[in-house]
């Protein structure tokens, strides 16, 4: 629905609280959250100016715009979250901080940990905002072949990222962003070889599945 609004009228229409598609999305989301059919909303592309191959998909908007504050308060009401695709520009991070601090009951999953972010970018946000989570998808090979994007590979974890993962072990989750079976299998092998064995056991369990179970309200199989 956010993409539909963007394609119809650009970023202004995507941020328009009166856009019919977004009004319908809000109403349906509230019903689904209340009924337990969903636990979050996203992935919302709010800043993907350089991180999307498709030119028509690229955009940058205000992360704490009224439309997002409205949806953020909604997920907060039902112990849910918003998921953002947001590059770590300083103004975007400042706006994200304002959104996070506006309602501590709401949570945000920062997809791909900001794509091209460095550890200091994420640490500065996590130190201030306990309701911020990060997904590690697209931050390792074979999905991402860009060295500056990779947090870990099959040989291990960048030392600065490892320190951050240990310090905020409750708020990171594995992911792949795989687009086919081959990428998925390769990504899981990289997680199992390069990420998890190089973390403390408790941290590895949290990042591998426990944090996701808590955030997504998943249950263990009997």
For the termini, the CA-CA separation is 37 Å
Strand content: 5-15%
Biggest sheet strand order reads 1-2-3-4-7
Number of helices: 8
- Using the alpha-carbon principal axes, give the shape: globular
- Which stretches are low in confidence, meaning pLDDT under 50 for 5 or more residues running? none
Q: Give the beta-strand count.
A: 7
Q: Residue-averaged pLDDT, rounded? A: 96
The H/E string reads: HHEHEHEHEEEHEHH
Biggest sheet character: 5 strands, parallel
Content-based structural category: alpha/beta
Topology, pairings included?
Layout: H1 2-14, H2 20-35, E1 40-47, H3 66-77, E2 81-86, H4 90-102, E3 107-110, H5 119-128, E4 132-135, E5 152-153, E6 156-157, H6 159-167, E7 172-173, H7 181-195, H8 201-215
Parallel strand pairs: 1-2, 2-3, 3-4, 4-7
Antiparallel strand pairs: 5-6
Plain-language structure description:
- By secondary structure, the protein is of the alpha/beta class.
- Helices cover 46% and strands 13% of the residues.
- The protein has eight helices and seven strands, in the order ααβαβαβαβββαβαα.
- The protein has helices spanning 2-14, 20-35, 66-77, 90-102, 119-128, 159-167, 181-195, 201-215; strands at 40-47, 81-86, 107-110, 132-135, 152-153, 156-157, 172-173.
- It is globular, with a radius of gyration of 17 Å.
- The termini are far apart.
